[in-house]
Specification:
homodimer; mainly alpha; Methane Monooxygenase Hydroxylase, Chain G, domain 1; 8 helices
């Protein structure tokens, strides 16, 4: 094999490795999404068995995090990636941390669903389901943006986080009123509050992932700036 | 300069860069610790001005995260670290994410302290102060373990997280009782609950950082395993 062929061979193998690590992130993301979905279903339908399933499958998410993390270390040590490749690896390292935390939220909601399954249901569950749909959709779109390296879609997720926060604030207010109506509602009200809070955090993690995607594609770090500032950056970069 | 001297020169410069990034993490950690401490003080003393200060200085923490992250990318691209050096950089990347989230908690507690400052004080503040001390101490020890690459100390932090969790559970139960006694306590009780929850999360982040330290020093990933399993690993590695 001459030098050029060897180089090409190495770069093909490297590309295959990067492709593989990307796919593994998407598989992990898919599992986390599924767990969140099942945990919400379990909660709103009072289905303890489903809650148990959602909670129990978190160990798989944790295992995936560790193995992808190892793979990233290996790539960094062996391939010494630069530019976009390096940003991709950095994005993966950060994204899986957020995905793992989302997995923890699914586990938590699953466990609360078990607790709440044999208690009287609240009419607040409709709002919780709505919040759950928003949070899951945000996560799905963030992973989609990662898969397609789609800055526009990532920006939609960043902007959309306000909607989840508003839904959370509204639900919190309703729950406080509900608890004030009858002190016997307090314990259950607080459990539902934790679920709402967990979903709000899922939205935050989706936003984090979306911000990493913008960084990966444009090479600009857009954390801790307003959506308007990010859009300025996107405009500048794509002009 | 001959080849050997050049190599030595490059490696000295590289060591200086690694040392610099380590110091920056410790500076960031120190600031986060200070913010957490001030936020707790603000809360238990009903000091709105101090709460405002703790909340406002979070932007500095965010800026530090971004700049250390950039420095890590630069080191990865230019120096292509391996083995312990690579693990150090990976540990830094993960540690600053956790520190940034702790900074968010300090901001949150600071804001809640402002809210609560002009309301009647609860006698639950003693327990909150105790939790705050535990959480701050855990964070301090985790950063110390990072600075000294001290696996034993890191393990203490990992084991100690249960104590924070227990304090949190006890406080939550007390708060529910307090809210049940008088519905007018509910809103305030929930605010205090959020503070307790934030402190419990600070403990989790300290534990995460301690686990990264074990990984950095031993090259073993100890997340998602029990403290007993970690101790086995430590024994094996130091035998």
């Amino acid at each position: 094999m001459n030098q050029d062929m060897l180089k090409k061979h190495i770069s093909q193998q490297f590309n295959a490795e990067l492709e593989d690590v990307r796919n593994r992130v998407l598989t992990m993301g898919g599992l986390v999404e599924k767990n969140v979905g099942e945990a919400i279903e379990a909660l709103v339908n009072g289905d303890a068995a489903l809650g148990e399933m959602a909670a129990k499958s978190d160990y798989q998410v944790n295992r995936m995090e560790l193995s992808i993390d190892e793979e990233c270390s290996r790539i960094l040590a062996r391939r010494q990636p630069a530019a976009l490749d390096l940003r991709l690896v950095m994005t993966v390292i950060k994204t899986i941390t957020d995905l793992e935390r989302v997995g923890d939220k699914a586990e938590k909601i699953g466990r609360l669903a078990i607790e709440l399954a044999n208690q009287e249901r609240l009419d607040r569950y409709k709002e919780l389901r709505y919040m759950g749909e928003l949070a899951r959709e945000a996560l799905h779109q963030a992973l989609d943006a990662f898969a397609r390296m789609d800055v526009e879609l990532a920006m939609q997720v960043v902007r959309g986080d306000d909607v989840i926060d508003d839904a959370y604030d509204a639900l919190t207010r309703q729950l406080v009123t509900y608890m004030m109506e009858d002190p016997r509602n307090i314990r259950r009200g607080i459990d539902v509050l934790w679920c709402a809070r967990a979903l709000e955090r899922v939205g935050d993690h989706a936003k984090n992932i979306a911000e990493y995607v913008v960084y990966m594609v444009l090479g600009k770090d857009v954390r801790h700036v307003t959506p308007e500032q990010i859009e300025d950056e996107v405009r500048k970069a794509t002009r």
